[in-house]
Amino acid sequence: MRLLRAARGRGRGPGAGPGPCRRPPPLAALSEALRLERSRRSGSALVFPLQGLARCLLPGAEAAAPGLFQPDLAALRSAERLFAAGPGHAVAYLSSAVRMEHAPPPALPEVCFIGRSNVGKSSLIRALFALSPAVEVRVSKTPGHTKKMNFFKVGKYFTLVDMPGYGYRAPEDFVEMVEAYLQKRQNLKRTFLLVDGVVGLQKTDHIAVEMLEEFGIPYVMVLTKIDRASKGLLLKNVLGIQEFVKEKTQGCFPQPFLVSSVEFSGIHLLRCFIAHVTGNLPTVEDS
């Protein structure tokens, strides 16, 4: 099976562990993001960056097509509460594993994050958990930092898995580790495939898509580092991915999610989608 064999010999590093408590960045909170949007009159660019991009570059275009994920404010706030640790609600690093027999029991709905080395995966996960600053997700400037599957538990609601990256410096047993997880993890509800928003889909990303399609895994694409891309370049990459998803995939959610771990653009929406696909937002329509 070729799948990710072409990506072998490259990846990302031991991603997590408990650490000192930090103060959450202001924009990690939905209320602060909304306040900044109002002050800048920037529409919904922080919370809904895809719609903001469409309005900016394609005047008169519809903000969203029917059937896409557009939660209301109440749903966004409900999701935010899930990611914020508090009394009786622990958000914490759970464990790491290199083999499925070492993974925690599949007791809760689960999502996993996978992507090329240096795509910004650990930075994104740290931004998602920014409202629970005691959760430390280690981020390295050196590609290939995550070498194990790192599991995080969000109360009694779901678990999130940071997978090793494919491409540069992936662990030697990367293929066996990831394929075994994707095929055997019966509580896996959605895989988040991260794509660099500056460079768009690469050859190794296409191989990852082939693997997910072959296994029949439902997945969604997330464009990272959108703060580093010009609006024109970002639009080009978004349109290219949307066309690719429409023509070449069956298991991919049609709406890409745009995020910046630096500016917190799209983070609140992505939290909400995670809450939804793990069954924790029953009022939002199925996706």
TrEMBL record:
Region (Disordered): 1-25
Compositionally skewed regions (Basic residues) per UniProt: 1-11
A cellular component annotation (GO) from this entry: mitochondrion
Keywords from the named record: GTP-binding, Magnesium, Metal-binding, Nucleotide-binding
Domain EngB-type G: start-end pairs: 107-280
Essential cofactor(s): Mg(2+)
Record has GTP-binding as a keyword: yes
Alphabetized InterPro entries for the sequence: EngB_GTPase, G_ENGB_dom, GTP-bd, GTP-bd_ribosome_bio_YsxC, P-loop_NTPase
One GO molecular-function entry: GTP binding
Family, similarity comment: Belongs to the TRAFAC class TrmE-Era-EngA-EngB-Septin-like GTPase superfamily. EngB GTPase family.
Record protein name field: GTP-binding protein 8
Protein's organism: Cairina moschata
